[in-house]
Design goal:
- This protein has 223 residues and is mainly α.
- Among the domains are: 89 residues; 36 residues, no CATH class.
- It is 68% helix and 0% strand.
- Helix 3 packs antiparallel against helix 4 and helix 4 packs antiparallel against helix 5.
- The longest helix is centred in the N-terminal third of the chain and has 44 residues.
- The termini are far apart.
Length: 223
């Protein structure tokens, strides 16, 4: 690092030498010292004033922040409040309930056992096979809700139910979670295709497609 040296002007020798013993310092030196002290004191005073002003501003900022935090939130628009109320009512209405879940599970198990017995006792009659098909669909719906988990109130109960039902619906719960969760993550993204899509085309593709595709779509979705 380069060093710089200041050279004092030669026409002010009184600043370089101390006065000899018995001699008084020149008056010019006293005046010069006074000139140096006054600006320094002024600078110190300005610095103190600035620090005080900053401290006051910080205190005011804290008071404003506390006042804003303590102030009540602005009321939401009426239409937004009504929409939120409807959503909360729907969530409360369709929240998992163990009592209803056990009733539904008991009915599902009864229909499954009854339809399997009907197929065996009727030697594979078509009505018994159709009944078994419907009972399997119902069992798979319960399996689906348990895998989400939304059938029982507790997650561990849903997991246990899904692990039991996977043997009856012939589908691994772990594999279902991987595929079905991927389906939910990409649902609505037309650049990603998966086998779980219940609607594998968007509205634009439906309008551009043949009439029979539109007809089948309406028949399946809204018969």
């Amino acid at each position: 690092m380069a060093l710089s040296f200041a050279v004092l002007p030669s026409h002010r020798p009184e600043l370089l030498r101390a006065p000899a013993e018995g001699h008084q310092a020149p008056a010019a030196s006293s005046q010069h010292a006074a000139q140096l002290v006054v600006p320094a004191a002024a600078a110190v005073a300005v610095g103190v004033t600035v620090r005080r002003q900053r401290a006051v501003q910080r205190l005011r900022g804290r008071h404003v922040s506390r006042a804003v935090a303590a102030a009540p939130a602005a009321p939401a628009p009426p239409e937004l409040s009504e929409e939120r109320r409807k959503i909360q009512a729907l969530l409360k209405k369709w929240r998992a309930d163990d009592g209803e879940a056990w009733q539904s599970l008991a009915l599902t198990a009864f229909l499954y056992v009854f339809s399997v017995a009907a197929v065996h006792l009727s030697a594979g009659s078509w009505p018994a096979i159709v009944l078994l098909a419907f009972s399997l669909v119902r069992s798979f719906i319960v399996f689906h809700d348990a895998a989400h988990p939304s059938f029982f109130e507790k997650a561990e109960d849903n997991k246990l139910l899904g692990q039991v039902l996977q043997f009856f619906v012939n589908y691994s719960m772990d594999e279902w979670n991987q595929i079905h969760n991927s389906h939910h993550n990409h649902f609505g993204d037309n650049t990603v295709k998966d086998n779980s899509l219940t609607i594998w085309f968007c509205e634009e593709e439906l309008k551009k497609g043949p009439w029979w595709k539109w007809f089948l779509h309406r028949l399946i979705r809204d018969p």
